[in-house]
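[Q] Does anyone have a clean structure-token version of this?
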Amino acid sequence: MTTQMETVPLLVTLGHVGGSGFVLRFPVEYSDEVLALLDENNIGHNTAMELSADQPLWLEVVEVLAVPGTVTASLGALGSVIKTLVKRHDGKRFVLKRDEFEVEASGYSEEAVERFLEQRVRDQAKLDAETRRVLGIPDEDAAE
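[A] Here you go.
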């Protein structure tokens, strides 16, 4: 007899335009554990609020884009947080989601999780550039 594993969503959504991080969304019951792992890995973070009550997922802004030159290390640390969480809950299926793209976190190396997160960095840069273009704000790189 086979049983279906519980699926735990881990959504890595883009942060605010020009911000320094992503929004990590996960079930509320994992909040204490995830927050402790972020602290252990020296990842700055703060809890965000949704505009409506009873949201099914916790929102934590993770500061992985804050200091130029440290993004790779920050992404590695966040990848380590995700892999540790998955290992601790063997028997549950953790799914990383990015828009319509999703990857099962268990069975993936930290490097694969980091590549997933690196794509989020590129997505955030595109969003920032497009927002500046639409608002008529000069490109920061062009001003130098």
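[Q] Thanks! Anything notable?
[A] Residues 7-135 form one domain.
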